[in-house]
Amino acid sequence: MSRKAMLVVMVVVVVCLACLLPAAFATRWHIDGQGFPPGTLTKDVPPDYDEVYSPRGYPTGYHARNMAEQTNRLRELFPGIGDADEKLAEKPLPAGAEGWFAIPRWEKIAPTYEEAVEKVLGKIKQTRGLCDDREGQRVLGVDSEGKRTFFDKSPFQHLRRTSRTEKMFQKLGDQQKNHDILVVPAQFGLRHRGRSVERVRGVFAPDEFGLGVFEIGCMLLTHPGRIDDSDELLDILCVGDESQRWWTDPLCGRHYKAFCCVPALGDNPDDDPVVDPPVDTCYTVVDDLGSGTSYHGAATGFLP
Q1: d(CA 220, CA 62)
Q2: Which pLDDT does position 252 carry in this prediction?
Q3: Over the stretch 39-63, which tens digit does the pLDDT of each residue have?
Q4: Under 8 Å CB-to-CB from 66, ≥6 apart: which residues?
Q5: Which end of the chain is more exposed for a tag (fewer CB within 10 A), N or C?
Q6: How do residues 149-180 score in pLDDT, each as one tens digit?
Q7: Are 131 and 271 in contact (CB under 8 A)?
């Protein structure tokens, strides 16, 4: 093979690697939602990058409601839903949990997880208003035929639970058979405030798992005081879910799908007091999973 031919081959190989490697790295953390084991994360990401100081917290007066209040509220919002094993809430809380929360099985709300999430977000919109920052998010990319076109940045139909969260809820469901509403020990974000998504997933306790949009949405329906318009409010990362989005490699223009986003729920910074009901809750998508921010804290559940 001539020197010129070898040079052409080498250029082709380099270009192919430039297009393929970013997609592989983009899904490094998001194939199964597990993250690195505790103690190994800081080898890749400096501590001052994936975890930052956060003074934010919960609104004054917020507290976990008793189990009877929570289950009654859920039955008002979702008529026909069954009961819960409320006596579980009398047991001591696992380390790290703030309270016992009533969370329906999503299968009792809708045929698919995505539809169940839609119904919960719909109830939030009805009761307190909801702005959806995902709407209208578009990116310019290249389709399979090489044509430049626009794609949805974070299509909602590609939301899914992480494998860890799915397994943990399977265990909870097996422990609480014949009950439509599960009693789950959880915390609303303070435990992991200032931590990136990757950091949170890397330091889970053995019995801890991320909560998704469905679970956190249900918790907000039974605890509306968790979100208000206070300046130091801690928004909630839904690290039990992953959202797929399109993104374009800036080196070669190739377009990829990757589960590289995490949903978040929090205060609407553009709340208009004239709107009735006021739109005081915002649904967003976080796509920088390696950076900690002072604005967010991940909500997590625990096995009792």
Answers
A1: 11
A2: 60
A3: 333 334 444 578 999 999 999 989 9
A4: 89
A5: N
A6: 544 444 444 788 999 999 999 999 999 999 99
A7: no
93: left (phi over 0), alpha (psi -120 to 50) or beta: beta
Pull the structure tokens for residue 6: 């070898």
Positions of the chain with pLDDT under 50: 20-47, 136-143, 148, 150-157, 271-277
CA distance 104 to 183: 9
Distance of alpha carbon 202 from alpha carbon 36, whole angstroms: 5
| Strand partners for 280 | none
Q: Given this model, what pLDDT does residue 41 score?
A: 35
Dist. CA 240–CA 277, nearest whole Å:
29
Q: How far apart are the first and last CA of the chain?
A: 67
DSSP collapsed to 3 states, 195-223: ECHHHHHHCCCCCEEECCHHHHHHHHHHC
Nearest Cα to 65, choosing from 189, 225, 193, 192? 225
Domain residue spans of the chain: 3-302
pLDDT confidence of residue 14: 59
Q: How buried is residue 46: exposed, middle or buried, by Cβ count under 10 Å (0-12/13-18/19+)? A: exposed
* DSSP designation for 233: B
Contact (CB, 8 A) for 242 and 33: yes
Q: Indicate the residue type of 113.
A: Y
Question: Alpha helices, DSSP H only, in 1-158?
Answer: 3-26, 47-50, 67-77, 113-128
Structure tokens at 238: 């839904």
Q: What is the pLDDT of residue 166?
A: 97
Residues in the chain, total: 304
Tokens of 214: 């469905």
Rama region for 65: left / alpha / beta (φ>0; ψ in -120 to 50; rest): beta
Residue 27: predicted pLDDT: 31
Question: Rounded distance, CA 190 to CA 136, Å?
Answer: 31
In the block, which residue shows the tokens 């031919």? 5
How do strand 181-187 and strand 255-267 relate by DSSP bridges? unpaired
